[in-house]
Amino acid sequence: MSIKLEKVVETFYENLEQGKIMGRKCPHCQNVEFPPVYACNECGSLETEWYEISGRAKLHSIVMPAALSSKPEYKNLGKYAYGEVELEEGSRLNAVVRGITKKKRKELQDKLPVNCHASIFQREGGYKTVVFDLDEE
Ligand SMILES: [Zn+2]
């Protein structure tokens, strides 16, 4: 891992501690990278800047976690699934989405994409991370 990328990751987690979810925005093509990476994936610019994302997003697909893959640091997360999430700013990522049971997934399957939003989650004994919650209907 390059020193610059380590710095990006460090700043990202420092901001999470303060309740801010940061991506990187490219001043040339306005592309927003989330999770933040140093270079713009659209135009290759290395001059991206910190940008606080709104957290508004759409959930496009849902994958239930395999029982064996349940991670101990997610113990206090409750029911969750993995989903393909598209941020308002345009980035797509695979993320943890809370509150999805097998039953809920069936209900949602025909309604996709549905609105969701980013939340900051305190991992068991560790650092904070970003998860997604479904918007209330
Ligand atoms: Zn760019």
Task: Present the secondary structure layout.
Layout: H1 3-17, E1 22-25, E2 32-33, E3 49-52, E4 56-63, E5 80-87, E6 92-98, H2 102-109, E7 114-122, E8 128-134
Bound molecules: zinc ion.
Describe, in plain words, how this protein is organized in 3D.
With 137 residues, the protein is of the alpha+beta class. It has 2 domains: 3-52, no CATH class; 56-134, no CATH class. The protein is 17% helix and 36% strand. The chain has 2 helices and 8 strands; from the N terminus they run αββββββαββ. The strands form 2 sheets. A 5-stranded mixed β-barrel has the order 4-5-6-8-7. A 3-stranded antiparallel sheet has the order 2-1-3. Strand 1 (22-25) and strand 2 (32-33) form a beta hairpin. The longest helix has 15 residues, at 3-17. The chain is globular and about 45 Å long. The N and C termini lie far apart (42 Å). 20% of the residues are buried. The model has no long low-confidence stretch (mean pLDDT 91). Bound molecules: zinc ion.
**From N to C, what is the helix and strand string?**
HEEEEEEHEE
| Strand order in the largest sheet | 4-5-6-8-7
The averaged pLDDT comes out at: 91
Distance between the termini: 42 Å
Ligands bound, unique = zinc ion
Q: What profile does the largest beta sheet have?
A: 5 strands, mixed, barrel
Number of domains: 2
